[in-house]
Amino acid sequence: MAVIINGKNIADSIKEELKEKIEKLKLQTGITPKLSVILVGDNPASCSYVKGKEKACREAGIISNTVKFSSEASEKEIIQAIEKLNTDDENHGILVQLPLPKNLNENKIINSVNPEKDVDGLHVNTMGKLLKGMKTKFYPCTPMGVVELILSTGMALEGKEVVVVGRSNIVGKPLALMLLEKNATVTICHSKTKDLKGVCSRADILVAAVGRSGMIKSDWIKKGATVIDVGINRVDGKLVGDVDFENVKEMAGYISPVPGGVGPMTIAMLLKNTFISAAGSA
């Protein structure tokens, strides 16, 4: 049976360390890190995520500022607000809560964020640096959280065969690039992949990030593999992942649960990026 990778405990440890660093930054420089979140519309999941981020900021000593817009807001209004935050020296991080209403151009809005304040790591400049293997100030939060979970097992990524199921701009693509930088052999799978089960069964490390509950079955898993579940799906009022957890844990060596796996790590990485931005402005 697999060892459960407790993302909440790992995230709590990271947040405690950050809290100490933030206190030190305040004492030495008078700077308090500040994160602004752009929230458009009233998507219940987005509102819940933003509340979680606000709570985590308070606990770490980061000022949290949520800028709310109705779902009818124009791109111009949203971008004007972002541009104001871009030039505010007391604001260190800007995050655009996704998804945005379908009438808005997601890329245009994300790329209006100053790359120096792109604490979500989704700006085209950040992605371009990842592609070229260049160091970047910020790394995308969820992929960075996934990498931290893998490394927490003590496993070295070099030479490992990693399969990432899902090719989104938020998780799959940047994660694949980050794993390549650590000399893993990476395969990205998607809806057109032939013999998905066969590809997954080769993986030393399998990352599921598709948004389909219970898609990854136990007979897709190589015995002893590490399985990281990024999926968040609501089934019968409960949060579940993309992995058939109860059965897959019998095959895997390590596995992350949903909830309590990648989710807390994503928020911890966001706080870390916000601190890095604030410390860099000192």
Automatic annotation (TrEMBL):
Residues that, per the record, bind NADP(+): 166-168, 232
Q: Which GO terms describe its biological process?
A: L-histidine biosynthetic process; methionine biosynthetic process; purine nucleotide biosynthetic process; tetrahydrofolate interconversion
Q: Pfam families from the xrefs?
A: THF_DHG_CYH (PF00763), THF_DHG_CYH_C (PF02882)
- Give the reactions, separated by semicolons, that this protein catalyses: (6R)-5,10-methenyltetrahydrofolate + H2O = (6R)-10-formyltetrahydrofolate + H(+); (6R)-5,10-methylene-5,6,7,8-tetrahydrofolate + NADP(+) = (6R)-5,10-methenyltetrahydrofolate + NADPH
- Kindly give the InterPro entries that the UniProt entry links to this protein: Aminoacid_DH-like_N_sf, NAD(P)-bd_dom_sf, THF_DH/CycHdrlase, THF_DH/CycHdrlase_cat_dom, THF_DH/CycHdrlase_CS, THF_DH/CycHdrlase_NAD-bd_dom
Q: Per UniProt, which keywords does this protein have? A: Amino-acid biosynthesis, Histidine biosynthesis, Hydrolase, Methionine biosynthesis, Multifunctional enzyme, NADP, One-carbon metabolism, Oxidoreductase, Purine biosynthesis
According to its UniProt record, in which pathway does this protein act?
A: One-carbon metabolism; tetrahydrofolate interconversion
Q: Where is the Tetrahydrofolate dehydrogenase/cyclohydrolase catalytic domain positioned along the sequence? A: 5-120
Q: What is its EC number?
A: 1.5.1.5, 3.5.4.9
Q: Where is the Tetrahydrofolate dehydrogenase/cyclohydrolase NAD(P)-binding domain?
A: 140-278
Gene Ontology MF terms: methenyltetrahydrofolate cyclohydrolase activity; methylenetetrahydrofolate dehydrogenase (NADP+) activity
CC terms in the record's Gene Ontology section: cytosol
Q: What does this protein do?
A: Catalyzes the oxidation of 5,10-methylenetetrahydrofolate to 5,10-methenyltetrahydrofolate and then the hydrolysis of 5,10-methenyltetrahydrofolate to 10-formyltetrahydrofolate.
Checking NCBIfam families in the record gives: PRK14186.1
Family from the record: Belongs to the tetrahydrofolate dehydrogenase/cyclohydrolase family.
Q: How does it assemble?
A: Homodimer.
Q: What name does this protein carry?
A: Bifunctional protein FolD
Q: Which organism is it from?
A: Candidatus Saganbacteria bacterium
